Amino acid sequence: MKRFKSHWFYWHTGQTQIALISLAASGLLSGLMLTLAAGWSPWSILLAVFFDVAGLCVALAYLLVLRWSVPEILGLQAPADAFVLEFLILPASVGFVLNRGCAYLVAKAFGYPFEAPIKHRPDPESG
After folding, report:
1. For residue 1, is it within any domain?
2. pTM to 2 decimals?
3. Is residue 41 part of a domain?
4. Structural domain containing residue 19
5. Nearest Cα residue to 6 out of 88, 114, 111, 102
6. What is the pLDDT of residues 78-118, one digit of tens each?
7. C-alpha to C-alpha distances, 23 to 18, 72, 92, 104, nearest whole angstrom
8. CA separation (Å) from 16 to 42, 51, 76, 92, 94?
9. Residue 106: CB atoms within 10 Å
10. In a domain, 47, yes or no
């Protein structure tokens, strides 16, 4: 995961050009892929592009905590599960992969150094 950083990583490290281009590329790819292939809403696409990990965390919170408070007797649990799956889990998963892939490809095209420079330590025997 060293190389596959989010576009927000590049934004916060001062690489705004990489961040903006990768954000635009992943937004276009996500929009085309999710709308044409699956017919998802713009809100789920925005969630997938801007909040890839946050969307997965919200989905996980629903599955672990909130799902059990939705009454199954009234028939609400199945539609709630379908809603979370269709508008949260699947778009966030697709967005996570597309965001990281686009950010990596854009950073690689701009020559971003992925490997940290190795600092040479003096040899303890030679002083």
Report:
1. no
2. 0.70
3. yes
4. 7-109
5. 102
6. 888 888 887 778 878 888 888 889 999 999 998 888 776 55
7. 8, 39, 15, 11
8. 25, 17, 44, 23, 23
9. 23
10. yes
